[in-house]
Fold:
Amino acid sequence: MGNELEKESTDLVTDSTKAHSVPHPSHSAVRKDDGEVTRSQHIHRIVDFDCPLIESQHDPNDLARELSRILKKRDISLTSAQRTLLKDYKTEKNMYYIFTEPTIPEEAKILAYSSLFNFLIFQGQLTKRVTIELNPKPSEQWDGETSEENGYAMITLWSQDHIRDLNVRLVRYLGITLQELTNAFLAIYGCVECRRNPKWQGEADHGEAWKDMMVAIQEAVEDHSFLDLDLKLGGLGAPAEGSRPGGILPSDALSR
Ligand SMILES: [Zn+2]
Structure:
């Protein structure tokens, strides 16, 4: 099943063999120039979504803040390509009119939506950076997992076959996928030194930067004039500490 996914998801997926041939810039090798800002002893490059981000060289808080800012003013900040994509999606003309289409395999639906999330939520920054694999086995521990190496991420979605209703199950998969894409985004572009700080990505990948991003993403995804998807993100697995009961969002996330 994983191979099928890789073949079909040309927008997001990269050949995993290439991942190992790309040199990984070391944190200490970064030279200070106009594109960088210094915070503590770390050197972080400025986050500008008009340019490709650079792997491992951004403050996770900057990534979260800037992406949230773009998503919050989504009504005016969309590019013409994004507007066209959203219009097609809203008018049910293209591949995204697939939610309830029974002839399209579940994994193809997940990949189609992943591509949509990449372009409309993550501003295309995950293109050819992420491989998604649907594991036919369930996991007792996780719904999804993300690993990252050399600027490329592998997402594993563990089977949700215990959910019999196909639409409910797809909602579940898409919610997990969106969370894992958020993990992948921070893992690929976040400063390695900063990632483990609980104020940023945190040891469990659900630190404050991640939570802040999920707040903005959830709002954008549920917006009727935007993606209009109720992915029930509030009910997905996240650390209990600092979260609202039954939800992923920290109690103070919206006020920060
Ligand atoms: Zn850092």
About this structure: The chain has one domain: 2-14+34-255. The two ends are 42 Å apart (CA to CA). The pocket of zinc ion is lined by residues 42, 44, 59, 191, 193-194 (CB under 6 Å).
